[in-house]
Design brief:
- This protein has 328 residues and is α/β, with parallel strands linked by helices.
- The chain folds into two domains: 187 residues, Alpha-Beta Complex (Spore Coat Polysaccharide Biosynthesis Protein SpsA, Chain A); 110 residues, no CATH class.
- It has twelve helices and twelve strands.
- A six-stranded mixed sheet has the order 3-2-1-4-7-6, with helices on both faces.
- α5 packs across α6.
- The longest helix has 23 residues.
- The N and C termini lie far apart (51 Å).
- The relative contact order is 0.11.
- This is glycogenin glucosyltransferase.
- Belongs to the glycosyltransferase 8 family. Glycogenin subfamily.
- It catalyses: [1,4-alpha-D-glucosyl](n)-L-tyrosyl-[glycogenin] + UDP-alpha-D-glucose = [1,4-alpha-D-glucosyl](n+1)-L-tyrosyl-[glycogenin] + UDP + H(+); L-tyrosyl-[glycogenin] + UDP-alpha-D-glucose = alpha-D-glucosyl-L-tyrosyl-[glycogenin] + UDP + H(+).
Length: 328
């Protein structure tokens, strides 16, 4: 279907790397759809070149220089700059139907069946299930809808300061009107939700088709030891299931990094990939040290603040082990 496309957005080089991995994961699972990347003007030339080799269409979008209604809306609501940029996906009217995917998502199997759904189809947000998560959604490009969305932004703003608040306000009947527009959670498995309902992840996680790396720490925020195939990241902030994170890094290091190296040539760039195991062992030592230093009261406090040590003592394997013992 030449008039259907997966669409993503990258406003800087870091998110561009995420978009590259997303594009590669869609290609690897043999999508029959077109791939479109909307990018901000801050994305560097080398990254743009790599994106153009992965995606069928790469379009620079900048609301500040657009000269259209988005520009006028921006003047009234400068706080919603990135949101206005994302809404440009509705201007892709040479496509009849699209699936938008955030650049911090990873496809685990073919998901072309999403195009059987109608606008606006999305999965529930784990934080408030009566809202949909705007990391993956089905939509129909339309100049009319685009104009109405901008008008809604200008008049109502966003209850969460981002695109998710705007879209949930605009498509306000999503939770109650049509169950067919509720995508199963496996199409937008939020990595931070794994630990909030571990038995469900154990039961259904193997069917996941898209993983979404929600939270402040993104896959590209970590480092990957190519020799040991281990991800090295912040002990406090790594908020994802290690195997999904490793899948992201293996795809990035094996397919995207060589393309970036070719574009950068002799110019230095930060790939995040290291060729030795020192970082891995020092990270392991740091985790072990922390386990002895953190009291049970401090640990409880960190959990309540959403700062569980997912890569250390609160890792998936440790929680699973305790859960299995409890169930026995």
């Amino acid at each position: 279907m030449a008039d259907q496309a997966f669409v993503t957005l990258a406003t800087n080089d870091n998110y561009a790397k995420g978009a590259m991995v997303l594009g590669k994961s869609l290609r690897n699972h043999n999508t029959s759809k077109k791939l479109v990347a909307l990018i901000g003007p801050q994305v560097s030339e080398p990254c743009q070149s790599v994106l153009k080799s992965i995606f069928d269409e790469v379009r620079v979008v900048d609301v500040l220089d657009s000269g259209d209604t988005a520009h006028l809306s921006m003047m009234k609501r400068p706080d919603l700059g990135v949101t206005f940029t994302k809404l440009h996906c509705w201007t892709l009217t040479h496509y009849s139907k699209c699936v938008f995917m955030d650049a911090d998502t990873l496809v685990l199997s073919n998901i072309d069946e999403l195009f059987d759904r109608e606008e606006l189809s999305a999965a529930p947000d784990p934080g408030w299930p009566d809202c949909f998560n705007s990391g993956v959604f089905v939509f129909r490009p339309s100049v009319e809808t685009y104009g109405k969305l901008l008008q809604y932004c200008t008049e109502h703003g966003s209850f969460d300061g981002g695109d998710q608040g705007v879209l949930n306000g605009f498509f306000g009947d999503w939770a109650t009107a049509d169950i067919s527009k509720h995508l199963p959670f496996i199409y937008n498995l939020s990595s931070i939700a794994i630990y909030t309902y571990l038995p469900a992840f154990k039961q259904y996680g193997g069917n996941a088709k898209v993983v979404h790396f929600l939270g402040k720490t993104k896959p590209w925020s970590c480092t990957f030891d190519a020799k040991s195939k281990q991800v090295v990241g912040s002990v406090h902030e790594a908020t994802t299931h290690p195997s999904f994170l490793k899948d992201w890094w293996i795809l990035y290091s094996s397919t995207v990094v060589p393309m970036l190296q070719e574009q950068y040539g002799d110019k230095p760039f930060h790939s995040g990939v290291v060729e030795h195991e020192e970082s891995s062992s020092s990270h392991s030592h740091a985790v072990q040290s922390q386990q002895f230093q953190v009291s049970s009261e401090e640990r409880k406090q960190k959990w309540e603040q959403g700062q569980a040590d997912y890569m250390g003592m609160d890792s998936f394997d440790n929680i699973k082990r305790k859960l299995d013992n409890f169930l026995k």
